[in-house]
């Protein structure tokens, strides 16, 4: 790629960030949902792709720590798909509770945010916001596997958004949204299943901080994941089914009303 083509492609992406893209065909929307479900249910693919959920999980801890005034020290992502985010501040209080509680809901809420952007036909914006968030996390990652995970994930998104066709970009965007929405449920189930062997799970640490039983925290995480999946699914399927969720799909709803 020569300099002129590079600049032209960059200008095109900048233009697309502020505009909407054409709605993909319904086969792509539904097909990526089915593929995402298979990736979550099938154990060999889940073992690999769960890393994406861990990135979102630790990102939830990290960004909440910053928002609540805590000092973010480091993020580590491990090859067994576990992770650790370390922040400093008071070991009790609202900031600590919110930071601890943010991990499990984060994949579902990120997926819901993706669905809102895609429901508004902001495919390019969704992809580049993801790259920006990964770059922010990259600053605080302190182990090699974590760096590799973020670089590979960001590299794939960049390559597709820069070189891919509109259909390829839409396919990756919808697959990512469906995957996070569906995948957010499984770690909550695993959390409850493993609590007997992991006394320092997020739910149990929250129980000690708040005196609210760990099971109630697990149920809260599950409720957020399921509600996000329902609402996110409606947003993603709005163009297919005619289901509208104002104001997130205002243009789609307006078009449906006009018809």
From TrEMBL:
* Organism whose genome encodes this protein: Nocardia terrae
Has the keyword Transmembrane helix been applied to this entry?
Answer: yes
Domain of life, source organism: Bacteria
TM helices/strands, residue ranges: 25-42, 92-117, 123-139, 144-164, 170-189, 215-237
**Protein name as catalogued:** M50 family peptidase
Keyword terms, alphabetized: Membrane, Transmembrane, Transmembrane helix
Q: Which InterPro entries match?
A: Peptidase_M50B-like
């Amino acid at each position: 790629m020569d300099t002129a083509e590079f600049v032209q492609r960059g200008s095109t992406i900048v233009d697309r960030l502020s505009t909407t893209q054409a709605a993909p065909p319904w086969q792509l929307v539904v097909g990526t949902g089915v593929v995402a479900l298979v990736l979550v249910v099938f154990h060999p693919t889940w073992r690999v792709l769960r890393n994406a959920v861990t990135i979102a999980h630790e990102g939830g801890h990290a960004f909440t720590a910053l928002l609540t005034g805590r000092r973010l020290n480091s993020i580590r992502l491990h090859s067994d798909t576990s992770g650790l985010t370390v922040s400093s501040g008071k070991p009790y209080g609202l900031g600590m509770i919110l930071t601890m509680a943010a991990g499990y809901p984060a994949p579902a809420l990120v997926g819901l945010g993706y669905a809102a952007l895609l429901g508004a036909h902001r495919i390019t914006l969704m992809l580049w916001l993801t790259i920006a968030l990964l770059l922010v996390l990259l600053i605080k990652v302190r182990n090699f596997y974590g760096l590799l995970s973020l670089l590979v994930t960001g590299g794939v998104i960049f390559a597709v958004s820069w070189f891919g066709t509109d259909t390829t970009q839409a396919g990756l965007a919808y697959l990512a949204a469906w995957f996070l929405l569906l995948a957010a449920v499984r770690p909550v189930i695993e959390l409850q299943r493993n609590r007997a062997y992991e006394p320092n799970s997020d739910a149990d640490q929250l129980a000690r901080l708040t005196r609210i039983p760990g099971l109630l925290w697990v149920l809260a995480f599950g409720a957020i994941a399921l509600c996000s999946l329902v609402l996110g699914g409606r947003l993603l399927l709005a163009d297919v089914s005619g289901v509208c969720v104002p104001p997130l799909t205002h243009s789609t709803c307006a078009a449906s009303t006009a018809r």
